[in-house]
Design goal:
This protein has nine helices and four strands, in the order βααββαααααααβ. With 261 residues, it is mostly helical. This is CWH43-like N-terminal domain-containing protein.
Length: 261
């Protein structure tokens, strides 16, 4: 086990590699990205887009809601279809969601591109790659149809939700031990709020989806399918909110992009 820094040690904060470390930096950045823009597009936008698809389904396609049944239990009607139908099967929501994904993915790539010079490099290494895995899982969920490619869709959902839960775990651990909370007192309540999102909301609901869905498959009880769908609805929002909190963690920061030939 690595030795944790004592309270007397210098504060260790994960940081982007400074441009001075580049061999031949350009005099001016090729592009500047404000952190707020990255958070809005890379964290908040998919949640807004997903809830818009759900809202559209419930408001304008009520006939599908009233007659919705799962292929596994065709005789059981559920008034709360899983998110996958609104974003991956029914039109025009599917087209709208793919457009949201087209905007979201480039910004999300930057969430997994940074380096740390602290003692927890291995955890950071895994964390930033799981962020990319989580993004790929979301893309796969959107591409593989829950009707025609159920196994691939279910596997993609598992990859997405598992990587998201590990990312929350690593994020809170790194946040606690980095010392960043000593920089501003306002980061203390933010850290505890992240822990509530992670350990009190996202974890229980994520685990519950596995149980409720399989219980539904064995019993064809619509209650468990409803619980599964409602948990999905909440997890989607929790995912976006958790990453969007970075806008307060790194207040005033911006990303500079340098492109060289």
């Amino acid at each position: 086990m690595p030795d944790f820094p004592s309270k007397s040690d210098d504060i260790v904060v994960p940081s982007v590699v400074p441009i001075s470390a580049v061999a031949h930096p350009l005099p001016f950045p090729t592009a500047n990205f404000r952190l707020r823009t990255l958070c809005l597009i890379g964290a908040l936008l998919p949640g807004v887009g997903c809830y818009f698809c759900l809202f559209y389904t419930f408001l304008f396609q009520s006939d599908k809601i009233r007659n919705f049944t799962s292929p596994n239990c065709p005789d059981v009607v559920s008034r709360f279809p899983p998110v996958s139908y609104s974003i991956g099967v029914w039109q025009p929501q599917k087209t709208f969601w793919l457009f949201i994904l087209f905007l979201h993915v480039p910004a999300r790539l930057f969430f997994g591109i940074y380096k740390s010079r602290s003692w927890y490099d291995k955890m950071v290494y895994v964390h930033v790659r799981l962020i990319l895995v989580e993004m790929l899982g979301l893309i796969a969920i959107s591409i593989f149809d829950i009707h025609d490619q159920f196994v691939l869709h279910a596997l993609a959902y598992f990859v997405w939700i598992a990587s998201f839960n590990f990312n929350m775990l690593f994020n809170t651990i790194l946040h606690h031990h980095s010392g960043i909370r000593q920089l501003r007192k306002s980061l203390d309540p933010l850290f505890f709020f992240k822990c509530v999102l992670c350990y009190a909301i996202a974890y229980p609901l994520s685990v519950s989806t596995g149980f409720t869905y399989f219980i539904f498959l064995f019993t064809c009880n619509s209650l468990f399918y409803t619980l599964f769908s409602l948990a999905e609805y909440v997890v989607v929002g929790t995912n976006c909110l958790f990453y969007f909190l970075m806008i307060w963690e790194m207040n005033g920061c911006k990303l500079e992009l340098y492109v060289k030939r």
